[in-house]
Amino acid sequence: MLNSLSGRFLILTVLFVMLAEVMIFVPSVSRFRQDYLLDRLERAQIASLALLADDMLDPQLEQELLENAGVYNVVLRRNEMRQLVLSSPIPQPISDTYDLRDPLASELIRDALWRLMTSDDQIIRVIGNPTRDAGLLIEVTMDAMPLRAAMLDYGLRILLLSALISALTASLLFFAVRRMMVTPIRNVVAHMQTYAEAPEDARRIITPSATVRELRDAEVALQAMQTDLTSALRQKERLAQLGGAVAKVSHDLRNILTTAQLFADTMEASDDPRVKRSAPKLVGSISRAVSLCEGTLAFGKAEEPPPKLGRHVLHALVEDTLDNERIAMGESRAELVNDVPPGLVLRCDADQLLRVVGNLVRNARQAIDATGKAGAVHVEAAETETDWRIVVRDTGPGLPPKARDHLFTPFQGSFRKGGIGLGLVIAAELVRGHGGTLTLVSSDAGGTAFAIDLPKGPARPRATGD
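The line above is the sequence of histidine kinase; the predicted structure tokens follow.
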């Protein structure tokens, strides 16, 4: 129970109410002490006035008046003259004197706390103003132990009452919070557990029912998330089934096309002019079909390992990538330029970054070659306090609208003849593995630019509001 929300709320409520009662207790006890002393002064004044009215009182009656007032001596100052009205032997010297004529609140609290902590039998002097202007001042001496005993009794009664009020208040708040917050939260948790058992079942999606605004907002957000997740799971299941079917078809089709490619290669040796003219086109078509099947199978089985991050000189990595591309480009008229600053060092997986930059450079070079004109591919880089940015920019014709709309969609983002639209998809996946993003910066008649943004720091959880 102590680990539950309602149990901890109960404990905190008791503690806070008790703290508030303690804050009230100290001034209450000091006020009780002041009233106690003023009461003794008033009693002493009544006894002294009785003696003044008849100065022939018997000593026994005088002692009875002192005992009734709870004091040893009474001094009354009237008409600028200090007069010892009532007196009796004092068992020990006076230890403290307290003036109640115009006390400060801090002094009253300090003296009250001191009296509670002092257990010695002491005699104190108390000075105050007589009631009803019956003199200039009145002064009494008295035993401090009865005062301390009365203060302790009063304090215990205050503490018991405070404990009772705390328990009652905490109980009421406990049941109120349990009904208004804990129970709805448990219902939400129960819905989440039920949904987790079969997330494809739309009947298990939560229906918002809470009356508390914040809880209802949470239920609405959970309902939207569960609805989207159920739809995504259904779509994923259909895509998985479709992917399995495509993989099987692609596997069988690849075997068939491989056989057809062998026959097409044989046809190229034929002496028939019509066969010679048709054979290259047939071979090219079959080669593209085989490439599509192999790419589909590779994408379906691809499981990229997490990047092995290390610090690398980016200029050298880019230069290796461009060298590999220069070897493969043949008679291409595209110029490959490394504009990366020589001293730039970044944290990445070198092999994966080579694949990403290589894919972007190859696409840019092929786009330039498709125009039949000369062009250039520039690889640039810069860094800020938070991230590194690598930009691959070309002077090609730009991407067609269809390619821009489906740039990172498998099998749909290809912009060249014979492409299967997987290069950018895999490149974006590799960049995401580094915690970064691959984005299209611009694409028009003047060329195309892609940007790779890699963060410098570790991933941080998203902040939440209170």
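Note on the example: Residues 213-301 form one domain. Residues 411 and 421 are 4 Å apart (CA to CA).
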